[in-house]
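Consider the tokenized backbone below.
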């Protein structure tokens, strides 16, 4: 047990840091219509992939879903490689595995290795078979589309990416207004900053 803790210390430290960051930033998050859809997919399928263009809010949505699971006594495991997930898998323990931009740094490895995509698909299947586990992946739209086209394993009917995905697209003006409001309200800026923001409708 001690040896495992030492070996996995980096992953656990990263996971604890992300959990603390999520708890600290929860108040500025604005729930969109994608939030409930994503949560429903995750609870029904145990596996969720959030896709969208860079900077659109994939990570924010993923982290707020993680927050809800933390409130239901799930243990967060932030991974950068499927091997990380396998090493920290605990039977009969509620765990949420979170892999942000999972193809960003792994696409070349997946494309060049005969086994990498199999490892990913096998892990997804393992999660889907275990009621105590959840898996959240995020990816940029273009990279995911390229991967699905080129990697045969990602077309596995048992995984069916389309059934497990939520697309984060442009926010409405109202959603953007709520996001801006929360950032201004909770950051407690000096009064003159608020005056400049509202002056001549600068917002």
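A designed sequence for it:
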């Amino acid at each position: 047990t001690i040896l495992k803790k030492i070996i996995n210390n980096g992953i656990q430290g990263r996971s604890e840091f992300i959990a603390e960051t999520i708890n600290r930033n929860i108040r500025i998050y604005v729930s969109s219509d994608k939030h409930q859809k994503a949560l429903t997919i995750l609870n029904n399928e145990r596996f969720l992939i959030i896709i969208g263009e860079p900077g659109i809010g994939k990570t924010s949505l993923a982290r707020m879903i993680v927050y809800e699971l933390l409130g239901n006594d799930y243990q967060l495991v932030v991974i950068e490689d499927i091997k990380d997930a396998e090493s920290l898998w605990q039977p009969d323990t509620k765990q949420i595995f979170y892999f942000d931009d999972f193809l960003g740094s792994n696409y070349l490895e997946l494309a060049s290795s005969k086994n990498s995509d199999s490892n990913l698909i096998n892990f997804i299947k393992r999660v889907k078979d275990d009621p105590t586990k959840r898996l959240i992946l995020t990816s940029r739209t273009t990279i995911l589309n390229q991967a699905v086209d080129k990697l045969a394993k990602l077309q596995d009917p048992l995984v069916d990416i389309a059934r497990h995905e939520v697309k984060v697209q442009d926010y409405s003006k109202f959603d953007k207004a709520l996001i801006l409001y929360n950032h201004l309200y909770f950051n407690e800026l000096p009064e003159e900053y608020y005056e400049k923001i509202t002056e001549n409708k600068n917002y």
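The first helix runs from residue 2 to 7.
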